[in-house]
Write a structure and sequence with these properties.
mainly alpha, three-stranded antiparallel sheet, 373 residues
């Protein structure tokens, strides 16, 4: 198990190394200036804070995360409300998603990707003996609906859809009954369809995505540039730091579309290498968690956090390759951005912490409790 843990940490470090290298390269513009070093300096600052936070999370005992789950979720909801307050939340390109603290900023919706699954696992673990009752179907849907509603107000449809997806994964892993999934789907799917229908720009985004496969000239600019960037790289790439598309052609080159820069400069070899690292992280992580008791808080929470990180990387790669509509979801551990990097490493730290849990937390808290419950 020690070797598995070491391999897990090594894979994380390799992904962080790729991210550090590509943030510097993707930040180069058509008019070289000090901005490249500013981006690198900020990313190093973010990385230092994130590594410290992730390391602290990994060292904390497993029971800490179950006890703190409701408080962490409550704090996240408070921040999601606070970011919507004019004059408090920072608005960028029509979206109010950030809280700024001097040179640093925080995106509360990134916190929700960690705290919402923890809270759902906490709630389900408390009601596990009542899964057959209809009343159990409602409580997990309330925090999901509240979180998604607040994120939609920013607005951020991509993150809202992603939060719904990882919530369903969390409930499935935790053993939520199938009939309750069907009930939830019957309520959520019509609501989601109605939300999309009410937003013209969201319809335009989907229509533009479909146009990319019918007529490349009709595709949105960012999709055109992303596919062009990947095509320029070919099999082996043009060389690290030598890409041209990032020079004011490819939008969000160091954040949402950094995977395209990898494709241009390191080619198909580079993109497949990154995908291989994510697959390795997932498989090693699953092996690391094999000793956890099935249907326990630790098992459900750690599997969900691991899956959502790998799924987020897959979604980002699919957006870059025009397999999904643009969603504004960064590539974890690789994209530039403090909130995403911080919460990704905290999630990995929580996984390492929970992987040490080999017995139900309730038994550890009260070892003299009778086995009959």
């Amino acid at each position: 198990m020690r070797l598995t843990r070491d391999a897990f940490i090594l894979t994380i470090l390799m992904l962080l190394g790729v991210g550090l290298m590509m943030v510097l390269s993707a930040s180069i513009t058509s008019r070289p200036s000090a901005n490249e070093q500013i981006y690198l300096s900020r990313h190093l600052l973010f990385l230092g804070i994130a590594v410290a936070a992730g390391g602290t999370a990994a060292l904390l005992p497993a029971w800490f995360w179950q006890r703190s789950a409701p408080w962490a979720f409550a704090a996240t909801i408070a921040l999601l409300v606070l970011v919507l307050v004019p004059g408090v939340g920072t608005e960028v390109n029509g979206a109010r998603r950030w809280l700024r603290f001097g040179p640093l900023s925080l995106q509360p919706s990134e916190l929700a990707k960690v705290t919402l699954p923890l809270f759902l696992c906490w709630g389900i673990d408390r009601r596990r003996d009542r899964f057959g009752q209809i009343a159990v179907a409602t409580p997990p849907l309330i925090p999901i609906a509240l979180t998604v509603f607040l994120v939609l107000q920013e607005p951020d449809l991509g993150t809202s859809v992603f939060l719904c997806l990882i919530s369903m994964i969390c409930l499935f892993v935790a053993g939520w009954p199938l009939w309750q999934f069907m009930l939830a789907g019957g309520l959520v799917v019509p609501l989601a369809a109605g939300l999309v229908a009410l937003k013209p720009y969201q319809r335009d985004r989907i229509e533009g995505f479909l146009a990319a496969w019918r007529d490349f000239d009709q595709a949105p600019y960012q999709i055109q540039q992303s596919l062009t960037t990947l095509g320029v790289g070919g099999g082996a790439g043009v060389g690290l730091g030598r890409g041209w598309q990032k020079l004011s052609f490819l939008p969000e080159a160091n954040t949402d579309f950094v995977f395209a820069v990898i494709g241009e400069e390191l080619g198909l070899i580079g993109t497949l290498g990154v995908i291989t690292l994510w697959v390795a992280l997932f498989l090693i992580g699953l092996r690391l968690l094999t000793r956890l008791p099935q249907r326990s808080f630790a098992y459900a929470a750690s599997i969900t956090l691991l899956t959502q990180l790998v799924l987020q990387a897959a979604v980002n790669a699919c957006v870059v390759t025009a397999l999904l509509p643009p969603k504004g979801i960064p590539h974890p551990l690789i994209s530039y951005g403090g909130s995403s990097l911080l919460m990704s490493l905290v999630a990995l730290g929580i996984i390492l912490s929970l992987s040490r849990d080999t017995e139900p937390i309730s038994d550890r808290v009260n070892p003299h409790q009778s086995p009959e419950r």
